[in-house]
Amino acid sequence: MYKGKARAYTNIALIKYWGKKDAQLILPMNNSLSLTLDAFYTETSVTFSPEYTQDTFTLDNDKQDEKATAKVSRFLDLARKKAGISYYANVESQNFVPTAAGLASSASGLAALAKACNDALQLGLSDKELSQLARRGSGSACRSIFGGFVEWEKGYSDDTSFAQVIPSDAWENELAMIFILINDQKKDVSSRDGMQRTVETSSFYDAWLDAAATDLQTAKQAIAKKDFAALGEVTEANGLKMHATTLAATPPFTYWSPESLRAMNCVRTIRQAGLPCYFTMDAGPNVKVLCQKKDVPAILDKLKQEFSPEQLTSASAGKGAVSLEMEVSK
Ligand code: DP6
């Protein structure tokens, strides 16, 4: 029996990953840049045993259906291949998120699973190799292997596509992200399906790729200069450009709900009143607000005039994935 357990924190992209050039290997069309956060994380344990007759996957104490288990199995196959074993596995994952507002993250989940497999099967992978492995589970997971500011280099092959830390002199510790949780009942388009539809059909997609390359350079310069306004502006602009591509897809779609728009306007109003803060959104209605740590209380005060306290959570910069326990008995 081989057992490993690991924790990984979620990350939010400031420059988004949006589109794959290879869906099998999960090679992205563009480089992306994220901030790993401390408030939301996943702990995953994996046990490989000759006694199991199939893979099983439990998430937040709920046994998952065939589709979710098959996705985990495909990932486990990669780890089994590296280890040269064929044992089935039991995977147990726990998401630590403040509310059930659709924040369960595939990034922290797959990064934790990659790290747990590395420990269980004693694969001895470096962080770079772990990032490559996590990427095969979910693209954004490759960034959650690392803490702080992280860039995912798109690469051109399995070996050349991985994330790494952007040196920042620990500037990320002065920053924060406030989550405005918006839980509408709309049916989701997953990020996987959404980005595929956009690459295949959106007439704005080429413009997105041009913009993403320029925005990435702007963001990296802002980090090098510790220029918060410049980083915030490019974060907000890049997120808006990503979301614009969905409107030009066939069929068109959007992740925005009326409440998302209300939150975005609220952030703009707070900014115009003199508190620097900038929004970004991913493949769902929640709005995330990048700000400086020193301004969090004042920004929260303003947001509380518009949203309930349960809808608001703030996070600081988080660490990379960590091992929790491992056990090998033969
Ligand atoms: C909008 O990493 O969830 O959050 O690689 O298909 O698993 P797959 O997609 P995923 O996509 C994340 C998209 C995003 C932007 C980002 O995190 O960069």
Kindly describe this structure.
This protein is α+β, with helices and mostly antiparallel strands. The protein has two domains: 2-170, 2-Layer Sandwich (Ribosomal Protein S5, domain 2), CATH 3.30.230.10; 171-316, Alpha-Beta Plaits, CATH 3.30.70. 36% of the residues lie in helices and 27% in strands. The protein contains eight helices and 14 strands. The relative contact order is 0.19. The chain binds ligand DP6. Ligand DP6 binds next to α4. It is an enzyme of class 4 (lyase).
End-to-end gap: 6 Å
The CATH topology name of the largest domain reads Ribosomal Protein S5, domain 2
Bound molecules: ligand DP6
Q: How large, in whole angstroms, is the Cα Rg? A: 19 Å
Low-confidence stretches: none
Order of helices and strands: EEEEEEHEHHEEEHHHHEEHEE
Q: What amount of the residues lies in strands?
A: 25-35%
Count helical runs: 8
What does the overall shape look like?
Answer: globular
Average pLDDT over all residues: 95
**Portion in helices:** 25-40%
How is the main sheet built? Answer: 8 strands, mixed
Architecture per CATH nomenclature, i.e. the level-2 architecture of the largest domain: 2-Layer Sandwich
Query: What structural category characterises the helix and strand content?
Result: alpha+beta
Number of strands: 14
